[in-house]
Amino acid sequence: MTEMTESLPDVPMETAPASRAVLIWRAIFILVPLVFIVFLALRLGTAKTEHRAEGLAPPLEFTTFEGETINLDDLRGKGVVVNFWASWCDPCREEAALLESTWRREKGNGIVFLGLDYLDQEPAAKDYLAEYDITYPSGPDLRSQVARRYGISGVPETFFIDSEGKIVDIVVGPLTSQAQMDSYLDKIRPKEK
Amino acid sequence: MKIIPIRIIRVLIFLLLLASFTSVALAQTPTPDTSAITADQVNEVARGLWCPLCNGVRLDACELKACDQMKEMIAIKLAEGVGEEEIRAYFLDQYGPQVFGEPPREGFNWLAWILPVLGLFGGGLFVWFVIRRMIQPYPVAPAAPPQTAAQADDYSQKLEQELSRYD
Asked: What structural domains and CATH numbers belong to chain A?
C-alpha cells in the first residue's frame, strides 16, 4: 500500500495564485461591508443632531394652515414651545386643551406656542384644530423635515426653547397638568430687562 | 329730508342678501361626494403607497387611523377626478419618499441603490471563480509509455519469481 501511495505523482493541492485570489476575495467581502457600516454609523451620528448636541434648537420654518410662514429665528428673544401633534394621535388630545389655554394666558408674556402637524391629513388636522379651538400658529410638517431635524420619537412631543434659541427641555408624551406646564415655562420665560 | 325710494331699498336688500350668500358659498369648500368611489378603487392606489408610520406595511393593508385618513384622502382625490400619479405626487409632498417604500435617488441614499447591485455583481464573480476552480480537471500524471514485448517478458519473469517464493 505504502509503495503505491508513494508512486503517485506529486500534485499540489492548491496552486499559489489561486489561493491568493481567494484571500483577496475574502478580504473584499469582509472589508467592503465593514467600511460601509462604519461610514453609515459616522453619518447617522453627525447628520441629525448637530444642533441638538450643542443644545441649540435646529432650524425651524413652516407654513401654517392659514398660510403664514413661521421661522424660529424671527422669534429670538421669546420663549418658544414647539409641540408636535397629529389628529390621529389620542394622547395629543389629552394635552390639546391645556396647550391652548396656556397659550391664551401667556401670549402677552413673551411666550410663543407653535404646533407642527406630523404625518397627517389637512382635513382631519383642521377638524382637530376646530374641535379644540386652537388659535396658536399650527401647520403641517411637510415631509417630516422638522420632525427629523428635531429627532422626535413620536407624537406628542414638546420642545421648550429659551429666548436664546436653546432647547431647555423636551417632553415626550402628553403634558398632563398646568403645574407641569408652568414649571417648564418658567425655564424659558424671557428675562425682564 | 330726502326719502329713499322703496324700490332702491329693495334692490339694496337684494344685493346685500346675494353678497352674503355668495360669501358663505365661497367660504365653504364642500368635500366631494365619495360615495361613488369603491374600496377597490381606493385600494388600487393605496397598494402603491406605504404606511408612513409602520415598517414595511402597505397602505391598503394598514389599519392605523392615520392610514384610514390617507385612504379617505385618496377617495376624495379620486372623486375630484385626480389621477393616480397626481395622488402619488400629493402624498410625496406630504410625507416624503418614505411613502413609496423606497429611498430617494439622491445624495447619500444612492448607496442603498448601488450597493445591492455591487454586492450581487461581486458575489456573482466570487461564485463564478469558486465554481470554475471546482470543475477544473484534476492534474493527472503523464501516461506511461507503452511497454515493449521484452519489458513485458521481464515483468512476467519477475512476477513468476516472486510467486515461486511463496510456493
From this structure: 53-188 (3.40.30.10)
